[in-house]
Amino acid sequence: MDILRKLAPVFLFASCVFLITDNNGVEGSHRIYSRLQNVPAGEVNQVHRTAYHFQPPKHWINGPMFFNGFYHLFYQYNPKGSVWGNIVWAHSVSKDLINWEALPNAIFPSKSFDINGTWSGSTTILPGNRPIILYTGLDNDKRQIQSYAVPVNISDPYLREWDKPDDNPLVVPSSDMNASQFRDPTTAWWHNGHWRMLVGGKRKKSGMAWLYRSIDFKHWIKAKHPLHSAPLTGMWECPDFFPVSLHGKNGLDTSRVGNDVKHVFKVSLDETRYEYYTVGQYEPETEVYEPDKTSPDGREGLRFDYGNFYASKTFFDSSKNRRILWGWANESDSADDDTAKGWAGIQAIPRTLWLDPSGKQVLQWPVEELETLRGQKVDLNDIKNMRQGKLVQVKGITAAQADVDVTFTLESLDKAEEFDPNWEKLDAESVCALKRSNVPGGVGPFGLATLASQNLEEFTPVFFRVFKTKENKHKVLMCSDAKSSTLRPFDIKQYRPSFAGYVDVDLAAEKKISLRSLIDHSVVESFAAGGKTCILSRVYPTLAIKDDAQLFVFNNGTEPVTVQTLAAWSMNAPKQMNQNLEF
Length: 583
Ligand SMILES: *[C@@H]1O[C@H](CO)[C@@H](O)[C@H](O)[C@H]1NC(C)=O
Ligand SMILES: *[C@@H]1O[C@H](CO)[C@@H](O)[C@H](O)[C@H]1NC(C)=O
Ligand SMILES: *[C@@H]1O[C@H](CO)[C@@H](O)[C@H](O)[C@H]1NC(C)=O
Ligand SMILES: *[C@@H]1O[C@H](CO)[C@@H](O)[C@H](O)[C@H]1NC(C)=O
Ligand SMILES: CC(=O)N[C@H]1CO[C@H](CO)[C@@H](O)[C@@H]1O
Known about the structure:
- The chain is mostly beta strands and about 575 residues long.
- It is about 5% helix and about 40% strand.
- The chain has four helices and 40 strands.
- The model is unreliable at about 1-30 (pLDDT under 50).
């Protein structure tokens, strides 16, 4: 047992759960499809099924989790249907973050303190290498309360079975709280004799990260002030709070404090269904977290991802000294489509996350293990001076299942279009919707046309467009546009946003910008400028499927662009992706 413990580094991960409380078909933010909640999958349709993104064997997933010499992913799952409902904590393990083995459900409603639901939470490793889960249970009255679970057999390397002791719950909502707005406990951190954890909440219209402290992990006392809150942001789901190093890419244990770290605070905003984070300073003695001036709270804030990405969680991977971020990407098709195809929801590729040298934002990059799936490679280097309207096909790889990394260079930004001052009021997504890849520009649009049919009847462009502001500054917009991703008529219920974010690069000085896209049948997951801006899109082509999908590089701006380097790989599927379904 001791030997096992020594050999087995522990990785913890947490998932976020959502809440259900409305009565007109939308609970919290999950639309409730009572008629579909218990409809099992028939023939599972594989056309848009992802190959190397984590997915449930079938039915519904929403959020990850953690653990031991093995990576453990606990995720919110409906064992009975492909829409939200009947939520349990499903459990998969992996040695490499690529291949996954499904285990029996770890936590499911069974006791008075969670009989009406087992929602999201986190894991913490206690001293002596003992993992513990904190989660939100819904009790008999459907109050949201925080409970814990521990492994039944700590010597079982898979930690298959979890026990929810009878001294639960640990924390119940206080009398001044709304018991339907109190959920998603974080990984706890230790400082100066006390454990701390956060629970997401809301008071009036303000989002709240309630702070609790404990000496023994059993008795928790609410601190006088929340660790953080922000007006008019609504319910805060899935808070995450962790240190990042001021220097280098290494991740830090969640309890690290000191002069050489900053802290990142993230919430999933129920009202927008997007996530926002701030970078700031945490003083454990006074229990104050202060975001830096450069990172505002709420809807104006920074985002880990400007696409389909929610309920994310980070964990510290002590075996490789890195912090890993893992988000959940929902489907963009309809509930009926999900029921027909028999599954819904995937996990984004796990991303290593660290502080940008500027200190103003984080950088994210797919974990290095993903590269083990790279197969056939194609290089297209030094495509000089691609003029407006130029389209170059990347041949020789499986374009529906690929990893592509391209660097563009530009001679000059003189032709950059003017940034209309009225757009200051718009978000990036609205600007992208006005300036799509088929709207010719000055510097850009240039980028990749992914999941494309041969004649571009369907394609999902991922591209840059450079603007010049009144102050003569450049603004670089990154778009991942789903509008033209499918020939299915627009009246079919499907979400086709022109996802976009700005990229904080000095293109006038650097004269180059990189783009990496992970393409996986119904996923286009992209990383601009080494991970400064990331966008995950879910799309459902009808022609650009399997071997008929194509990949192009394009320029639709008057300023010629050069492809300095382009490397593209066919991606293999992992050997094992939860096929061993035993529950
Ligand atoms: C605990 O797990 C270990 C390792 O798998 C196993 O050998 C042992 O029999 C288990 N103990 C119990 C009580 O199930
Ligand atoms: C408590 O929260 C629920 C869920 O957000 C909401 O529907 C309800 O109106 C709230 N109750 C009060 C008294 O504010
Ligand atoms: C999931 O998909 C729907 C559209 O189908 C979208 O409106 C919603 O905001 C998405 N995101 C989350 C986090 O639920
Ligand atoms: C480039 O612009 C032309 C003209 O609008 C359009 O037909 C074409 O589809 C655009 N290319 C891409 C990749 O969007
Ligand atoms: C409020 C509510 O829905 N309570 C339910 C909690 O679960 C018990 C046992 O399944 C039900 O009997 C309650 O109706």
